[in-house]
Each structure stands twice: as C-alpha cells, then as structure tokens.
Design a protein that fits this description.
Elements: E1 4-8, H1 18-27, E2 34-38, H2 44-51, E3 56-60, H3 77-83, E4 87-90, H4 93-98, H5 103-116, E5 119-124, H6 128-132, H7 136-147, E6 157-161, H8 175-193, E7 202-205, H9 210-217, E8 224-227, H10 234-246
Parallel strand pairs: 1-2, 1-8, 2-3, 3-4, 4-5, 5-6, 6-7, 7-8
Helix pairs in contact: 1-2, 1-10, 5-7, 7-8, 9-10
The structure holds 1,3-dihydroxyacetonephosphate.
C-alpha cells in the first residue's frame, strides 16, 4: 500500500499560506508516499491550482451528507470534487465536539463522499477520560463500526486514529499504545469491510512532528499520519514526508 502524509490545516490559512504549498512541492517532487493537504474550504480551489502537476493532493475537512439543497454554510462532496479535492476528512474530533457530529452522521457523510468519488478519511479517537477508564478499544471500535461505510474499499477509505487528548497538546501515546490500537483497528476494519481492510491506510494523528515521526512510522499498521500544526509549514511537513518515505 502507498503510505499517506496528510495535513489538516483546520481553520488556518489565507492566500499568503499558498507559498508553503509551492515550497513543499518543490522540495518533494516525487516522494515515496502520498502527500495531501486539507486547507479550509476557502482555499481548496486555489490550492488545487498551485498543486496541479505536483505530487500534492488537496482535500476538504468536511462535507454534507446531501449533494445540494437548503443547507446554509455547508458544502457537498460534489462541490469538493468540483473545487479540485480528491479526499475529505470526516468525523474529526473537533467536528464531533464543536458540531455534535455522531457516528451515524459521519457515516452518512462518508457514504456521500464515496458516491461523489472522493477518498474518505474517517477520524476516530478516545478522550483522555475514556483512556483513563480503560475504554479506548471499546470507544474506537464502536466509532469505526458506526462511521465507516460497509462497502468502502482500499481505494476510497483511509482511517485516522487521533486520540483527542494528543491533538495540539504535544502529548502522544506510547509506541506500545499506538501499536495496540492500530492492530485492533486493522482487525475491526476487517470485520467491517472484509479483506480489503488489509490495504486501507491507517494513519496516526495527534502531535506528530519531525522529532517523533520516525519512531511512530516504525509501528506496525501505522501507514502514515494526519498532521495538524506541523502541516502548516513546508519545512516541518516536508520532514514528516521524508520520515514516512524512509519508513
Ligand atoms: O487533529 C490533528 C490532525 O487532524 C492533529 O493536530 P496536531 O498535529 O496539531 O496535534
């Protein structure tokens, strides 16, 4: 499987930030892994223009479950495709928290994304309280089963495991903890979508940086990363791309 270094810009970036995209493309013309940047919706089309002809793919951070209609402020999967996106992040913990998204809603969005021809990056992860209560596998297993379309394939699905307490905090699980969750997710995904699960990239996300990327990428069943803060600067994200290419 081709590994994936994905950047989630969250609510960061205006036109000036597109210089980082050009710099990243120049520094990594043909990496041994896929590179994806997911900017805010306002930048998708312009980033796609900058990325055209380079190794960088562009994605959205959310989509609506419907393809069009009276949904003020929302964006459909078809609109993401029209803007030049190939991927969409769905069910990020910030959307589950800020917008109350449930597994059922994430599933509906993922089905819409697949129908539109996008690759869905479905995010799951436990809170600190859930980990402390020993419920991590139970929580991520339930999220995975409830958020992933049963007919997804290795060609249109990516899973991102992001412990909520590791996002933006500089804290990460231990290598053994990441290994435990990723092995569990591979097995649970097989139960959900069948043998195709073996080739679905499983990303780790949460405080991934150039300084910890190499050891995280050495973990079995870690096929890449979903990177927040460190994806905003070409030098940092490029170093993570290099670490993944070498893994
Ligand atoms: O939420 C994340 C990516 O989706 C991770 O964010 P940080 O890399 O900033 O911790």
């Amino acid at each position: 499987m081709r590994k994936l270094a994905a950047g989630n810009w969250k609510m960061n970036g205006t036109a000036a930030a597109l210089a980082e995209v050009s710099a990243l493309a120049q520094a990594h013309p043909a990496p041994a892994c896929d590179m994806l940047l997911c900017p805010p919706a306002t930048l998708i089309a312009r980033m796609a223009d900058v990325a055209r002809g380079t190794a960088i793919k562009v994605g959205g951070q959310d989509c609506h479950a419907r393809s069009s209609g009276a949904h003020t402020g929302d964006i459909s999967a078809e609109m993401l495709v029209d803007s030049g996106a190939s991927h969409v992040i769905l069910g990020h913990s910030e959307r589950r928290t800020d917008h109350g998204e449930t597994d059922a809603q994430v599933l509906a969005k993922a089905e819409a994304a697949l129908k539109a021809g996008l690759i869905a990056i479905v995010c799951i992860g436990e809170t600190e309280a859930e980990r402390d209560a020993g419920r991590t596998l139970d929580v991520v297993g339930t999220q995975l089963h409830g958020s992933v379309p049963a007919d997804a394939t290795a060609a249109n699905l990516v899973i991102a495991y992001e412990p909520v307490w590791a996002i933006g905090t500089g804290r990460t699980p231990t290598i053994a903890e990441i290994a435990e969750v990723h092995a569990f997710l591979r097995a649970r995904l097989t139960a959900r979508i069948g043998a195709a699960a073996a080739d679905v990239p499983l990303l780790y996300g949460g405080s991934v940086k150039p300084s910890n990327a190499t050891e995280i990428f050495a973990v079995p069943h870690v096929d890449g990363a979903l990177v927040g803060g460190a994806s905003l600067k070409a030098a940092d994200f490029g170093a993570i791309v290099s670490a993944l290419s070498a893994a």
